[in-house]
Amino acid sequence: MPPSPSGNGSGPDGLNALPRPELVKRLLACLDVQRWADEVADRRPFASTAEIYQAADDAARELTREEIDSALAAHPRIGARVQGSDTSSSWSRSEQAGVDAGDAALQEALREGNEEYERRFGHVYLVCASGRSGAELLEILRSRLGNDPEEELGIVAEELRKIARLRLAKVVEG
C-alpha cells in the first residue's frame, strides 16, 4: 500500500508545516517536473486552498519539452497493467479504472493504438483517464493520431496540467 499523500500534510496548514523535501516529494507524485514542484513549494506559506491551486497552475503554465518528456516518463501506457506501490502508480491504477482488463479486444486495440501513437509522436499517449471508459480512451487516442506533432504536444501539456490538478486535489484535500 503506498504512503498516503494526505493526512498530516493536507490542506494549507498541513502543507505549510511539511518539511520542504516531503512537500516536494508529494508534489512530484502529482506532476514529475522538478521545476514545477520547486516553484509550488517556494510559494509557501499558503493562506488558502485556492492559493495552492493558483501556485500549481502558474508553475505549470509553460512546460518545456524536456519537462513534458520527464512527466511522460512517469506515466504508464493507457490500458497497461500499472505496477508499483508508490503513490503515483496507485493513482494511475485508479485513474484507469474504466479500462476493462477482461475485454481482450479492447486491450489489443489499446496496445496497437499506443504503439501507433508512440511511433507517430515519439512518446506515450497521455490523456486524463479519470472517469472515462476504455472505449472512450481508445476513441480519443484514435482521434489524436491525425494531429500535427506540435499540436499534439500542446494537447499533452494540457492533459498533464489536468492530471496534476486532479492529483493535487488528493494531496490538498485528502
UniProtKB/TrEMBL annotation:
Which parts form a coiled-coil structure per UniProt? none
Q: Report the superkingdom from the record.
A: Bacteria
Q: Which UniProt keywords apply?
A: Decarboxylase, Hydrolase, Lyase, Purine metabolism
UniProt xrefs under InterPro entries: OHCU_decarboxylase (IPR018020), OHCU_decarboxylase-2 (IPR017595), OHCU_decarboxylase_sf (IPR036778)
Reactions mediated catalytically: 5-hydroxy-2-oxo-4-ureido-2,5-dihydro-1H-imidazole-5-carboxylate + H(+) = (S)-allantoin + CO2
EC code: 4.1.1.97
Gene Ontology MF annotations? 2-oxo-4-hydroxy-4-carboxy-5-ureidoimidazoline decarboxylase activity; hydrolase activity
Please list where the region (Disordered) is annotated: 76-95
Q: Name one GO biological process term.
A: urate catabolic process
Q: Is Mitochondrion among the key words of this record?
A: no
The record's top EC class is lyase
Q: Biased-composition ranges for Polar residues? A: 84-95
Q: In which pathway does it act?
A: Purine metabolism; urate degradation; (S)-allantoin from urate: step 3/3
Record-given protein name: 2-oxo-4-hydroxy-4-carboxy-5-ureidoimidazoline decarboxylase
Q: Which organism is it from?
A: Saccharopolyspora erythraea (strain ATCC 11635 / DSM 40517 / JCM 4748 / NBRC 13426 / NCIMB 8594 / NRRL 2338)
